[in-house]
Amino acid sequence: MTTVAHQPPQIARANGIDICYEIFGDAKAEPMLLIMGLGAQMVLWDDAFCEQLAARGFRVIRFDNRDIGQSSKLSGGKRLSALELLKLRFLKIPVAAPYKLRDMAEDTIALMDSLRIRSAHLVGASMGGMITQEIAITFPERVRALTSIMSTTGNPKVPPPTRQATAMLMAPPPQTRDEYIARFAQNW
To answer: Please, what is the Cα angle at 144 between 141 and 150, to 5 degrees?
Structure first.
């Protein structure tokens, strides 16, 4: 088995926040950014998966979005319960948020700038897929290819998630390590 270069987690100051990232693969290889979804740390892009991508000729960069993992935690805005979020969604009332997908797209571009990456293959899961779409719309010259996994465009004609999936996604966050492990196993 071929060994793939792997840099330990590092912090980049980008878009006014700290973004924690890791790199797999050769520095001269084509860059590929892996963008995880809501409430999910970069390590959900499994090491072995990142190594396989790197072995196929990519410089794989995975990172924690703002408010997750080792990246900056932001404050501001009212924390809404799952029930409040569901009511707002079904009543089609916009949610006031301290930041938007556009801000998270700008975080990604700023990370690319700090790593001197002009353009990259973007792979996003769930909310990460929405972030990649925002990048493609706003910064098309920065995108070599886009892969959106388990995501949506936001078009209201796209079927919504099932009730079971919505309930899982909107459940209150686990409070203990054991609750976290049980939730992780249930969700994944």
So the answer is: 110
For 28-41, write each residue's pLDDT tens digit. 999 999 999 988 89
Which pairs with CB-CB distance under 8 Å and at least 24 residues apart come from 181-184? none
Distance CA 86, CA 168 (A): 12
pTM of the predicted model as reported, rounded to 2 decimal places: 0.83
**Cα angle: 143, vertex 35, 136; to 5 degrees:** 25
Q: Which domains does the chain have, with CATH numbers?
A: 6-157 (3.40.50.1820), 159-188 (no CATH)
Bridge partners, residue 10, by sequence: 21
What stretches in the chain show pLDDT beneath 50? none
Neighbour-count burial of 2, counting CB atoms closer than 10 A to its CB (0-12 exposed, 13-18 middle, 19+ buried): exposed
How far, in Å, CA of 145 to CA of 136, rounded? 9
Q: Which residues contact 37 (CB under 8 A, 6 or more apart)?
A: 124, 125, 126, 127, 128, 129, 150, 151
